[in-house]
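Please, structure for the following, as tokens.
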Amino acid sequence: MLFPDSLGSRGMRSQCRAREAKVRAGHERVADANAARRWLLEQSWVTPERTSLLGWSSGAVALLWTIRPQAARAQSGTDFRAAVALYPGCRRLRNAAWSARVPTLVLIGAVDDWSPARECEQMVRGARGRSARASIIVYPGAYHEFDRANRPLRELNGVAYSVDGSGRVHVGTNPAARADAFKRVPQWLAR
């Protein structure tokens, strides 16, 4: 596995509290994901046709921008095989008529008050017929970071975007969603 760090490599920290992103998911982070793919393809231990993307939260947003058909113009060589996005924010992508060029799975909590599931459901539904296979699983009772181990539900304050505009969101483990995601993700990537 390779985890590109679009923020730390630029001397930045989390942008969760920033209204204006300095490192944009649809631009710099797409370039970073493609640079990571090109580097991986040069490694002797990598099977090029098995290279996939996995992203969480803002990393999942970058992943969804990266796999748009329009983003393929900026790359060369073997494409990604598949992608899994966990609790991405889908509003801008939904409004941009998102579609995917590789099979994509979105996993999100039904009560996520940071990244609303309904926007991702609309995004995936809108991509039908003009996209590689895209699927979404919405976990009942699950919030942002549902897959983190042993994380009690807690409230965060001061985030830039929340469903109700208050800057308050909830994060925490949902054991059932976590268990399902831990089974479902490797199955999706192994297809």
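Strands lie at 53-56, 83-86, 104-109, 134-139, 154-156, 169-171. The helical segments are 28-41, 58-66, 91-95, 117-127, 175-190.
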